[in-house]
Design goal:
By secondary structure, the chain is α+β, with helices and mostly antiparallel strands. It is built from twelve helices and 15 strands. The protein has three domains: 58 residues, Arc Repressor Mutant, subunit A (Orthogonal Bundle), CATH 1.10.10; 206 residues, Bira Bifunctional Protein, Domain 2 (BirA Bifunctional Protein, domain 2, 2-Layer Sandwich), CATH 3.30.930.10; 49 residues, Roll (SH3 type barrels), CATH 2.30.30.100. It is globular, with a radius of gyration of 21 Å. It starts with a helix and ends with a strand. 39% of the residues are buried.
């Protein structure tokens, strides 16, 4: 379901006024110059979308403190000035099929290195290996960043893992503990998935190219949407005592991701290898790595200086695996 203009207007009104007081249907109808019946329908639409409306006994509405629509001013105020200067353009979308697809289209139209795209909702979000990425309205972070690289084939080894380090730093900064990284691009808290990373190259993979870096983080996933997820999951609201807003989280992510992007061409993944291993969810655990053709089991030994997974096989030999369409699972 795509959010209506009236429903967006209600959310903006609740953000502006309901921090101090709750609003009735009549209040909202007067403020938005619309009839009460349509306002009520739009409120029901928001409930169906999973927006966490708080409804009092006398049918007044407000929003929880951590909820807020994406806002350029609030994101910008949370950025380190040096990072803000590196942003080519910050684009906020209400609804898009995929922020990565939108970013790819911008790359094809010209040089947009430093572009940041955030959306309230994705209708066709995609994760690694083409899996569907659930993207309910106003619930999570759906973000894509464009960055240009030269001599990309060698330079980009391990970039997705380095971005994982940036995400881990961001989550630690907002007060989360127990954040883990699962090779090659998943973010976990304990045994529950919190988010993921998807990199896509546009251009010549052996020369100059642009990388579209997609980051998805669960902020306040509605249970109704979460029921469709086929693995254990969590979100920031569940894992923190005082949850931060999505705007604050977006600013932290942009700061830390840009910090790594600015130096990755010179330092490579080896500069972040130890930090990644320290957060490795699967380190020293028995696991199976597989693709469409075969499965190999062994004990995870961390990653090498290029971001390849190191595994000690059952025969005692060590084997290394790099990206591609590989899936890593813990042995039960």
């Amino acid at each position: 379901m795509i959010v209506s203009t009236l429903a967006l207007g209600i959310l903006r009104s609740l953000e502006c006024y309901a921090k101090r007081d709750s609003l009735s249907v009549r209040d909202l109808s007067r403020m938005l110059d619309n009839n009460s019946g349509l306002v009520h329908q739009a409120l029901m639409e928001l409930k169906q979308l999973g927006v966490p409306l708080i409804i009092s006994r006398d049918s007044h509405y407000c929003l929880p403190p951590h909820f807020g629509l994406l806002n350029k001013g609030k994101i910008g105020s949370g950025l380190i000035n040096a990072r803000a200067a590196k942003i080519y353009k910050l684009v906020l979308l209400n609804t898009v099929d995929s922020t990565n697809r939108y970013a790819r289209d911008q790359v094809k139209a010209g040089n947009v290195s430093g572009l940041v795209v955030l959306a309230e909702q994705q209708t066709a979000g995609v994760g690694r290996r083409g899996n569907r990425w659930l993207s309910p309205f106003g619930a999570n972070i759906y973000m894509s960043i464009v960055w240009n690289f030269t001599q990309s084939e060698d330079v980009l080894q391990g970039l997705s893992l380095a971005i994982g380090v940036a995400v881990c730093r961001s989550l630690t900064k907002i007060g989360m503990s127990g954040v883990k990284l699962k090779w090659p691009n998943d973010i976990y808290v304990g045994s529950k998935k919190l988010g993921g990373i998807l990199l896509e190259l546009v251009g010549d993979p052996s020369g100059d190219c642009s990388v579209v870096i997609g980051v998805g983080i669960n902020h306040d996933m509605p249970f109704s949407a979460g029921e469709a997820i086929d693995q254990a999951w969590t979100d920031i609201v569940k894992e923190t005592v005082t949850p931060v807003s999505r705007n604050h989280l977006a600013a932290c992510l942009i700061d830390n991701i840009f910090d790594i992007l600015e130096t990755f061409h010179r330092l490579g993944f080896s500069a972040y290898q130890d930090e990644w291993i320290a957060a490795d969810l699967m380190y020293n655990m028995p696991a199976t790595i597989s693709n469409s053709r075969e499965s190999i089991s062994g004990t995870v030994l961390g990653v090498d200086e290029h971001g390849a997974l190191r595994m000690k096989l059952e025969n005692g030999a060590e084997k290394r695996f790099i990206g591609g369409e590989l899936s890593l699972r813990r042995q039960v």
